[in-house]
């Protein structure tokens, strides 16, 4: 077992939404020549990186500071997502030939297309002044004081890639089950494979999945979570109570609020609200009686179309023999690099984490849990993944507070359509609509009501989830 992993009794993971590593952390150590105080090399930005805009101009990266017009709503539109948009961003074509090498030169031109497509919609989410060059805006560390302080105060992983080069749901499936069963977009009602939560159940180990302010979406993804005891699920407030009592489960998976007025940091939602979530989560854990035995992992499911200068590796281990639903994808390419922080009092400040072998992706969390709690792998992907245990190098837990004196940024700017349901909210409603719940007449056919606002969708998800919980209690 690697270093001090045996001392960890509680692994907590918060997975945020749709940001690239460069956009959130690329300038973290730029002023020190991309080296941490420990002398660790950091694969960050120099400021010389750029992308062509399709008109012969070259657009350089630039720092987003709080002096920008809308700093916490950058970029001002939702970039292109999904398998084909990611191919365009990395290769310049939707269908790269076998063996093609990505050059990461298609981000500006693809973002230009995304802006035009969004402005053609009835409900445009794009801010009026948005230009395609905004995709090259990368946050200055001072604009993200909470994330930057945590990254410098504990460990930043600068080589964590999304598990698959596409959008949210397939990557979240890899994070829980080490496979997306061939799916490459968000239109998946149910995965049929086992998840890490079922593996923990088999060992009689406790676990929890927590939505921020509504029932968690992840619960609806796998048979071993849909039918699990309702005590495994809750809101952030429930997680907070367990942390304060020192009774956290072996593994806690946290979701942000996925709506346009929420704290997921999905473009172009308010990034400052995500900073507040990081602050609150860290403070809850650091003051918990279980802090000395806790590893907190902050990750993002995918890059969401945002620029990163590192080409994703093409040596991923396919999870199984399933062929992808688009272009016969073989699952040998990782997705774009995403932000990742590793936080524990057993981690030395200024650490930049690189494993000795392999590529870190979402399944590295699964591998870490499997090593720590003696669980069998779920697929070939997590079996081959490097674990995160080597980051825990301190025999004695630290007692300092790296956020002492750090002020959470505030932003009064709002998304253009804060009440319109987001795509993930719609996915959540679709999933709870498919729950096998009988109505008062014993019929299982269910047609959800028209859900035009985020608030209406919230009420529907909470109500139907509560009915499902009651159904399970009556039949268990």
Please give the structural blueprint.
Elements (H helix, E strand, L loop, with lengths): L9 E7 L4 H5 L24 E3 L5 E3 L1 E3 L17 H10 L15 H13 L17 E3 L5 H9 L1 E3 L10 H10 L18 H7 L4 E5 L11 H4 L6 E3 H10 L5 E4 L16 H16 L7 E7 L39 E4 L7 E3 L9 H11 L6 H5 L38 H11 L20 H22 L1
Parallel strand pairs: 1-9, 1-10, 4-5, 6-12, 7-8, 7-9
Antiparallel strand pairs: 2-3, 6-11, 10-11
Helix pairs in contact: 2-3, 12-13
Name the structural class. Answer: alpha/beta
Please trace the helix and strand order, writing H or E for each element. Answer: EHEEEHHEHEHHEHEHEHEEEHHHH
What's the CATH class label of the largest domain? Alpha Beta
Low-confidence stretches: none
β-sheet strand percentage? 5-15%
Under the CATH scheme, the architecture of the largest domain is: 3-Layer(aba) Sandwich
Q: Could you explain the architecture of this structure?
A:
With 476 residues, the chain is α/β, with parallel strands linked by helices. It folds into 2 domains: 5-391, 3-Layer(aba) Sandwich (Alkaline Phosphatase, subunit A), CATH 3.40.720.10; 423-475, no CATH class. Helices cover 28% and strands 10% of the residues. It contains 13 helices and 12 strands. The strands form 3 sheets. The chain has an 8-stranded mixed beta sheet, sandwiched between helices. Helix 7 (223-226) links the parallel strand 7 (207-211) and strand 8. The longest helix has 22 residues, at 454-475. The protein is globular and about 65 Å long. The mean pLDDT is 95.
């Amino acid at each position: 077992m690697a270093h001090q992993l045996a001392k960890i009794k509680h692994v907590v993971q918060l997975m945020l939404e749709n940001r690239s590593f460069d956009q959130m952390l690329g300038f973290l150590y730029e002023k020190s020549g991309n080296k941490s105080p420990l002398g660790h090399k950091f694969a960050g930005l120099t400021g010389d990186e750029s992308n062509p805009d399709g008109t012969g101009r070259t657009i350089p990266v630039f720092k987003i500071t709080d002096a920008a017009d809308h700093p916490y709503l950058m970029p001002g539109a939702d970039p292109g997502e999904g398998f084909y948009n990611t191919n365009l961003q990395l290769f310049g074509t939707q269908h790269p030939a076998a063996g093609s090498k990505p050059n990461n030169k298609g981000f500006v031109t693809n973002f230009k297309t995304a802006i035009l497509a969004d402005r053609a919609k009835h409900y445009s989410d794009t801010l009026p002044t948005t230009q395609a060059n905004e995709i090259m805006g990368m946050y200055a560390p001072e604009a993200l004081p909470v994330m930057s302080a945590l990254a410098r105060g504990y460990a930043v992983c600068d080589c964590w890639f999304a598990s698959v080069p596409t959008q949210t749901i397939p990557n979240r499936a890899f994070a829980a089950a080490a496979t997306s069963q061939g799916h490459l977009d968000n239109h998946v009602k149910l995965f049929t494979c086992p998840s890490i939560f079922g593996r923990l159940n088999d060992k009689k180990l406790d676990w929890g999945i927590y939505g921020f302010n509504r029932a968690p979406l992840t619960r609806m993804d796998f048979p071993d979570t849909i039918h699990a005891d309702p005590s495994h699920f809750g809101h952030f407030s429930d997680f907070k109570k367990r942390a304060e009592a020192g009774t956290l489960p072996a593994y806690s998976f946290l979701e942000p609020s996925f709506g346009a007025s929420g704290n997921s940091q999905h473009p172009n939602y308010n990034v400052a609200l995500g900073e507040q979530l990081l602050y609150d989560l860290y403070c809850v854990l650091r003051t918990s009686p279980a802090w000395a035995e806790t590893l907190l992992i902050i990750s993002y499911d995918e890059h969401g179309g945002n620029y990163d200068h590192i080409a994703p590796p093409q040596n991923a281990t396919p999870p199984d023999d399933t062929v992808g639903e688009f272009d016969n994808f073989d699952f040998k390419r990782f997705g774009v690099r995403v932000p990742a922080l590793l936080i524990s009092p057993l981690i030395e400040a200024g650490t930049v984490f690189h494993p000795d072998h392999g590529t870190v992706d979402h399944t590295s969390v699964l591998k870490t849990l499997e090593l720590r709690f003696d669980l069998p792998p779920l697929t070939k992907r997590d079996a081959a993944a490097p674990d995160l245990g080597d980051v825990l190098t301190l025999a004695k837990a630290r007692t300092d507070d790296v956020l002492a004196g750090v002020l959470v940024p505030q932003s009064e700017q709002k998304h253009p359509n804060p009440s319109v349901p987001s795509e993930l909210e719609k996915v959540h409603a679709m999933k709870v609509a498919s729950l096998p719940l009988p109505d008062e007449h014993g019929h299982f056919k269910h047609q959800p009501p028209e859900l035009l606002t985020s608030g209406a969708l919230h009420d529907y998800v909470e109500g139907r989830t509560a009915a499902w919980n009651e159904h399970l209690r009556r039949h268990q």
